[in-house]
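User: quick one, sequence for these tokens?
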């Protein structure tokens, strides 16, 4: 199951890496970052809730004492992460914001050691460093030489912490016996409600009711950038540890870079961009060379 779980997480990272294609379209419609987040989360919540109502109503069953876990994945992690990430972009460049976001595996490692007593092996440590430096190379930090200001640093690191917390809260929910689909469902519901509380809803409502094509674009955006990746990531997280999952998901900036180059003709820096892609892929390969141990049979 470990190899399948790694593949599921890699699929999630790949789909997240393609989100820029949709965001560009919404930006052309002059929607704010948080309005785009609201579309993503609310449509995802509606789509997934309808699926659960028709095919598996048991997904809605949770215990009130565990409600904090889902508030954690939805509000503390996904909604707050999105806010911090887009604010970081507002105060700096997309590359700098991405670099700060991908401090997430470091925080996942720290949280996992404290909360789950996860052992930090040499291979995990090396994989983590390869993934992080690969992200640095991919985003072009070594060729830009731009100084990051204080708000960008604070919001960027905040996005990394919140991004990391999804793995932690999800793992806590899974350990309480909830299915990955239940975790995903309530993540969307709480994140969607939180996003709606901080935006001007009218432009979003106008867009989604303007034409069938616009509504379809919103639905496809939600399914490909949110529903499918969060489902596959959470499924993978059931069988591998959070640190491993966060490293594998680091393929996201690589896919984002390739998407930018292929779709939007954004140049990949030579040789640093290609070195970065190789480092991230290398980190994923290395983390899968970890010898199987008894402790890994259940989760890794």
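Assistant:
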């Amino acid at each position: 199951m470990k190899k399948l779980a790694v593949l599921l997480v890699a699929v999630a990272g790949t789909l997240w890496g393609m989100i820029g294609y949709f965001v560009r379209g919404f930006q052309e419609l002059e929607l704010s970052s948080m309005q785009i987040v609201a579309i993503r989360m609310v449509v995802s919540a509606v789509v997934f809730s309808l699926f659960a109502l028709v095919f598996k109503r048991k997904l809605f069953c949770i215990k009130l004492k565990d409600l904090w876990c889902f508030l954690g994945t939805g509000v503390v992690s996904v909604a707050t992460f999105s806010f911090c990430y887009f604010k970081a972009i507002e105060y700096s460049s997309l590359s700098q914001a991405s670099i700060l976001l991908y401090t997430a595996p470091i925080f996942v490692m720290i949280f996992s050691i404290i909360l789950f007593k996860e052992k930090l092996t040499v291979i995990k440590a090396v994989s983590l460093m390869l993934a992080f430096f690969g992200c640095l190379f991919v985003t072009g930090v070594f060729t830009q030489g731009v100084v990051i200001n204080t708000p960008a640093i604070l919001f960027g690191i905040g996005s990394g912490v919140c991004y990391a917390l999804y793995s932690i809260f999800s793992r806590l929910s899974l350990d309480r016996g909830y299915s990955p689909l239940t975790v995903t469902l309530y993540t969307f519901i709480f994140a969607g409600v939180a996003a709606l509380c901080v935006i001007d809803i009218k432009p979003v409502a106008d867009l989604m009711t303007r034409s069938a094509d616009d509504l379809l674009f919103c639905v496809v955006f939600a399914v490909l950038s949110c529903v499918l990746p969060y489902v596959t990531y959470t499924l993978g997280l059931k069988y591998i540890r959070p640190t491993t999952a966060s490293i594998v998901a680091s393929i996201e900036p690589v896919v984002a870079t390739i998407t930018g180059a292929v779709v939007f003709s954004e140049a990949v820096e030579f040789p640093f961009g290609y070195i970065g892609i190789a480092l991230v892929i290398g980190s994923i390969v290395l983390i899968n060379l970890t010898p199987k141990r008894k402790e890994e049979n259940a989760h890794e």
